[in-house]
Amino acid sequence: MDEQRVSLARLLFVxxxxxxxxxxxxxxxxxxxxxxTSYVEVQVDHFSFANPDTFxxxxxxxxxxxxxxxxxxxxxxxxxxxxGFVKNTGLLMEMAPRFGAMVIFAEHRYYGQSMPYGEESFKxxxxxxxxxxxxxxxxxxxxITRLRETAPEAANSPVFAFGGSYGxxxxxxxxxxxxxxxxxxxxxxGEAQEQLEKGYGGGDEEYQQQLAGPEIEGPEAVLTFLAFMxxxxxxLSRSLASAASIFQYPGITDCEAYSHVATRTFQRxxxxxxxxxxxxxxxxxxxxxxxxxxxxxxxxxxxxxxLTADDMPALVDWLVNLWMIYALVxxxxxxxxxxxxxxxxxxxxxxxxxxxxxxxxxxxAAAKLYFNFTGQTACLDISEPYYGGLAWQYQxxxxxxxxxxxxGVNDMFPAIPWDLSAFSEACYERWKVRPRPYWxxxxxxxxxxxxxxxxxFSNGDLDPWSAGCVLKSLSDSLVAIVMEDAAHHLDxxxxxxxxxxxxxxxxxxxxxxxxxWIQEYRAAGF
Length: 526
Known about the structure:
- There is one protein chain.
- The protein has helices at residues 3-11, 82-88, 91-99, 125-128, 133-150, 166-177, 189-199, 205-212, 219-231, 257-269, 273-287, 291-301, 312-328, 345-355, 359-371, 389-396, 420-431, 439-443, 501-523; strands at residues 36-43, 54-62, 72-76, 102-106, 159-164, 236-242, 455-460, 478-483.
- The chain is α/β, with parallel strands linked by helices.
- Helix 5 packs across helix 6 and helix 14 runs antiparallel to helix 15.
- It is globular, with a radius of gyration of 24 Å.
């Protein structure tokens, strides 16, 4: 693989996040309006007794509508400063009055202000090695437990985990890894058993038989009992996982799937748009071979620095990621999720691309639309990252290995093979660590998640990440909702009059399911 392809592969495994440079420890501590900032002390390493270090994990609380015993809506923070997720996630607060819910946004370790080792958190692998999804899930589990210990009015509140993108993955996984959090009930073992019996009718013979379970011995008995326990109501009762690409791992989802969906999104906006983008790659390659051609490219795209021959791979990387992000944020109204953009930005970009006689002039105009919609940017810098920051780059080099590739025939991108060896070398060069590409499949059950329960998986069909998500219901309690004409976790964003009917319907369905689950929880006597 040549240098261009290695560089591109390195970029394609990074998730889009809400704020650039999200690893910074100098974020403002001012409360987000309506929310109170709080902290909980957690272990740096939850899974070993060798490291006694602790740190303060930040979370934001809004109890405006909370009623004693009402549900807790917990947003499992992902790769960014938690304040950014509050500003871009309106569903929780919109639902809170209906259910009398407390809303909590918990920050992910190594992002925002939740730095285990302060300014030395990124010093070396010894300090950074505690940045894993499993450690983050344990942080959230500790937070739930502490809330019950310190807030009597929430001692028996059902907890609903919400999340989008990587946060949606965490929301699904916390339901799978911590389905009950028994310590959070603040009851002794005997009291909890008594409550169970009372909640299900106490002497009800049918329930007692169900609790006893079938007379099975050996390993099958263990699996049967585990499945039964997962089906019981619990304090961490349910999850809503939006755009949760839990299947986007090696050996589960074809690495070309993401590129196919991104191309389809552009095709739906303008039939000739993907073809024009596909043809631009050869034009860029030819122009990049001469000084005059590179000068023309620099001028056409309004770049801050004149392109050299060594810069050409970076220019291609920059444009590939641009088209992928466009599909991701194709919202039906003006939004500034990653950058200020007009409504239906893919449609606007495709109009610029297809209406221009010169292919590359149209492509350059679409690039300027993304990076300079406000007209305030003097020039475009291809070396400036779109997203990510150090923390997510590290996660993408360790456990979050989600292959993306393209063949240049069935999609609008150049041919980019998935090369694990090259990717591993790049990660080792940067972080002195090597990826474990199949560990997440082992840790989080791979595609066989049928033993899980009580999770809503919502996805928009415009979102390229939907290719690695749960798109079909797997059981009565593993519910998939697919929203037509919807981009990345649109259902979690604040309601807007321009929302497509599918999103309005999805939010209503999600609320009805949550209400049903709360009723079941109460009927169980919790």
